[in-house]
Amino acid sequence: MSVAQGEGQDVGLKLEALKLIRKVEAKRVVPGTAKAIDTAQAMALGKRVATAKRRLELVRKKEWPAQKGWANNLGEVRGIVVEEERIAERLEAARENVLRQRPANN
Fold it and tell me: How crowded is residue 47: how many other Cβ atoms within 10 Å of its Cβ?
């Protein structure tokens, strides 16, 4: 940088220094990779997550077990993209595990 910015340097030398700097800077930039998204799968996962959120709200309000149709009218459910594999299945397994551990009178 000092050669490229130096006022007393030869123009040819400045140009060579700028070329080298450009090569170094260009190696730092790495293009991202594109990922294909299965929209139907993302929408289904979005609906499952919205249902889980609704269930959690009802449990916190001590309104669980809920009335019939509790999962209706979730509003607009947008698809979500999750990097973690099988997150919905793992959340469901965790919920079932908690339900098994509860005493029978709750």
Answer: 17
Closest CA relative to residue 83, chosen from 32, 29, 45? 45
pLDDT digits (tens, 9 = 90+) for 41-69: 878 888 888 888 888 888 888 888 888 98
Instruction: Give me 89's structure tokens.
Output: 């299945």
**CA angle in degrees (0–180, nearest 5) for 75-78-82:** 135
Distances, alpha carbon 13 to alpha carbons 6, 22, 60, 85, in Å: 10, 14, 71, 53
Range list of β-strands (E), 33-74: none
Model-level pTM?
0.45
- Backbone φ and ψ of 87, nearest 5°: -65, -40
Distance of alpha carbon 66 from alpha carbon 74, whole angstroms: 14
List, for residues 20-29, the tens digit of each pLDDT value. 888 777 666 6
Give the Cα separation of 20 and 86 in Å (integer): 46
Closest to 55 in 3D by CA, of 91, 6, 83, 24: 91
